[in-house]
Automatic annotation (TrEMBL):
A zinc finger (FLZ-type) spans 22-66. Keywords: Metal-binding. It comes from the Eukaryota. The keyword Metal-binding applies. Residues 86-97 have a biased composition (Basic and acidic residues). This is FLZ-type domain-containing protein. It holds the Pfam family zf-FLZ. Residues 22-66 form the FLZ-type domain. It comes from Lolium multiflorum. GO terms for molecular function: metal ion binding. Residues 65-97 are annotated as: Disordered.
């Protein structure tokens, strides 16, 4: 009973005072239509999925993308640090005594 009651607000008409938002009547991953009498699995606030499998698949995709972005940032940081060290070394001038 609670699941169908919780889903009922999800499909209600949009409030008059709020701007139009994209319809959330299909799974964000597989585009399967979401029925009023079925459970809706949410992720990241307002992204609907038809099943736990679709939601977990999206979570794994997001994790992989985040890991790739972190690795890319690390490579950029490492190359920038190495470049700065090399640049700093080239500015040093030996002093004759």
């Amino acid at each position: 009973m609670a699941a169908s009651l919780a889903c009922s607000f999800f499909f209600d008409a949009e409030p008059v005072a709020e701007p139009a938002m994209p319809a959330q009547d299909a799974c964000a991953l597989c585009a399967k239509q979401l029925a009023r009498d079925s459970d809706v699995f949410m992720y990241r606030g307002d992204t609907p999925f038809c099943s736990e499998d679709c939601r977990h698949h999206q979570m794994r995709l997001d994790d992989r993308q985040a890991a790739k972005a972190a690795a890319r940032r690390q490579r950029q940081f490492s190359s920038a640090t190495a470049s700065a060290r090399g640049h700093r070394d080239s500015r040093e001038v030996p002093v004759a005594s």
